[in-house]
Amino acid sequence: MEFTLAGKLFLAITWGSVISLVVYCLWKVFCPVRRDNRSYHGDG
Amino acid sequence: MIPYVVAFFFLGLPLMWLEWGMGRYGGRLGHGSIPGMFDAMWNNPIAKYIGSAGLFISSVILIYYTYIESWTLGFSFFSLTKAYFGETTFSSMGNFLASYQGIEKGYFSSILPAYIFLLITIGLNIWVLYRGISKGIETLAKIAMPLLIIFATILLIRVITIGTPDPVNHPDWNVKSGFAFLWNPDFSRLSSASVWLAAAGQIFFTLSLGLGCIQAYASYVKENEDIALGGLSTASINESVEIIFGGGIAIPIAVAFFGVTVTQQIASGGAFNLGFISLPIIFQKIPLGGFFGFLWFLLLFFAGITSSVALAQPLISFLKDELNLSHGKATVVIGIGTIICVQFVVFFLAHGFLDELDYWAGTFGLAFLALFEVIIFAWIFGMKKGWEEITRGAEIKVPKVFYYIIKYVTPAYLLFIFVNWIIRDAVPILLMKNVGEADLPYRWGARILMIVLLGTLMLLVRLAWKRKTNRAENRR
Question: Domain boundaries in chain B?
Fold first, then answer.
């Protein structure tokens, strides 16, 4: 089965999107502007 | 893959934010489970009873998921001891799995090994659950999840570099064909409703939506924590693991060793076949396969524990918050309940007992609860208040378009799924038209077990609210 150009593009866009999202989230989680305070509901 | 991506944006991500918002709102009022959250958001006596579906679905899935989880522990052991080495064809490996499950005679003469691994699995689950969220599941996840991702990356690199394993006899069987099989868009399939339904179901299961688990964890979130970022992180990390590792390892390597036609047959038999039949065959064909197999299944087992503990969380929260049980007592109740109910799954597996539970809880139930969640959150509680809950304390800006997606598109999408189900599937499935005569009593048994479980949970909800009313009256 031939791996078509459309297939390669679809893979590149999907993998690129999820990797970008993960990098963005990790950056926001580990470099926060502020973090806070108290819990509503104990610590489990 | 196209319907899957669409389902992620219109169902997965919106519902993820909705469930985080609902969970934090419920937590502020002292509710860690769906009955209390629905009751707080909808001032109607029926709300808490509809919410008992949030306890029922996760509990039923917990019953059979624990058994499947124990197979990964078993296969980790069999990889280390090379028990399945020599079973190199699809049928012989299938027989190995079936004899382990007690369905056929073969390598194993009894179900005892499977039962021992099940007891170890239940014991470990109870122990992690008993230790609580921060000391139990959080500690396990912090160690096991990065290890799983590192190992999956190594395995992915190995898969990509494996090329064409048998260039003389099967030059077409290669990893490239595997990626083509998975990623070449097939626009002709987009008109098939079943493809869209399957994609939606996969999104629910992958992201643990429609179970009450996200809400249970979110109820512990701090007052001004960024749940918009929490929800986006949960969804995107989950998706990256499924799309890159899930799609990049199992199917491409199966195509490289079995070809496209056989892989399609294996995949149509379900995810279990791909995981417990094709991967062990592949581990036999790579250097250090026994060790790789041992690590792979062991890490899957740890990932499974994080899921089963999450599945128990809604019921734990309910027993603690609404019935005032101690954490220890709530853990014991769930442990005993799981041990009793899982017996039916173990001994009636060949008769479709597990499949019946999986259909009603793991497929139908998820979409059912999600539909009520979005109606209660966006239309009864109100989307304005709901949006405020999702975005409060957010460092990231949630695109406003999701306000309208949650209010209009997600409920419409879910309604479309239900209408489609009623038109196409409801009658034959309810009447079990496609079930063999011999399996009918067992399938009905599974339904009776679910009805008893749902009835018991509704009675517990009634008892909890009665107690609360009595306490409030006594205070006056």
Answer: 2-136+195-244+270-411+433-475
